[in-house]
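[retry 2/3] Ni/Fe hydrogenase subunit alpha: previous attempt timed out, resubmitting with same input.
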Amino acid sequence: MKAVLTRVEGEGGILVVERGGYVENVFYEISEAPRFFEYIVVGRNAERVVDIVSRVCGLCGVSYSLVAAEAFEKCLGIEVDPEIRMLRAALHLAERVKSHVIHVFYMNLPEIAQAKSFAEFLQRNPQISRYAQDVLMWSRKAMEVFGGRFHNVVNIKIGGVYRVPDKSDVEKLEKEIATVIKAFTEFASFVLSIKPSDVVQNVKIHQVSLYSSSSEYPHLSDRVSLDGDVYSVAEFYKSISRAMQVQYSTALHYRVKGVESFVVGPFARFNQSYSKLSKEVRDFVEMYDWSPPLHSIMHSYVARIAEAYDALLTLEKYLDTFKSSAITNTSSIASTKSGAVCEYAVEAPRGILYHRYIVDIGKVKICDIITPTAQNLAAMSDIATAAIRGRKADASSIAIAKRIAISFDPCISCSVHALPVKIITA
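[retry 2/3] Ni/Fe hydrogenase subunit alpha: success.
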């Protein structure tokens, strides 16, 4: 039994394996072709790679550019001015706000509010829709100011940024943000006040997010927390998490030791780092009787609301600092010895995005990009299988499988990579 997967970024399908009319297994088919970004960057200068990888995803372009720049800076020993780091962090947070609000508003809310369609939801809740649109438009504007444009940003480079924003543009953002935060809290109050009754509980599943010993909510790091156990990103992606190819998908799947699935993204970040959210955000979430741990992936929208609110509050502080600072933006890339390994990870809106490059005299020899959606695909199937196994293979079972996928907010296009093919002749 097959069904098209809708309200996700990219093209995919749901394959329900039935036996005697009852569900036995659920698989998410990814049918898009690999786009070979890991091969496109080979042989190119590291400076060019930062721009190229921003095209991997239209929703998370900042995350791709930022983690590439951070990886190269770390292994090349390049120091970045603290205020430039703050500027890049602000751009990344604006992306987080935009992505989360798009997901909750367009993908989650119709089902949460029990509307038959998105159009029906708009008709029933015009003011809530205006609040969401106001926040989205401001986040787009912030990305243009900090990143040059609101998608596939063009302002991050190794060692800094190409252009520091005009103070007048920053001041305009700063004047508007209080109104934007007010609009967001109205939108968030509506979302968090709804308590869905038909929620699927997760099977016991691993949760993975970036780890930092500081008080900062997960952002950039070279360490990973797997259910509280901390590993370097190199160890986790080399020894703990293993990539696999499956017959029904063109995307790689990842499992712990090749066996157990795990979840990355806002669900895992919220559950593992809730105490690092600002007190204002935690008080707001708890006012509506939400607090960790979230037990169902279908409650991921709660984490997205909390993260977007926390990002807006942080941006408010950043903007106040920007307007009174004198930012310097000077940097240069150094040559490197053969075989330098450059790797780092960032918390993209959908979860951990890991980049690893081997560089020889400034040029990339090997590239490995592990995307959030690829890491979540095995968990999507495992959770959906546990939720509807033994049920009748009908439209209601398909609807549950769709809701589980949408809760992950999969960016299917970004997940499509390929392992080298080896042909062995006997």
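[retry 2/3] Ni/Fe hydrogenase subunit alpha: Confidence is low (pLDDT under 50) at residues 418-426.
[retry 2/3] clearing retry counter.
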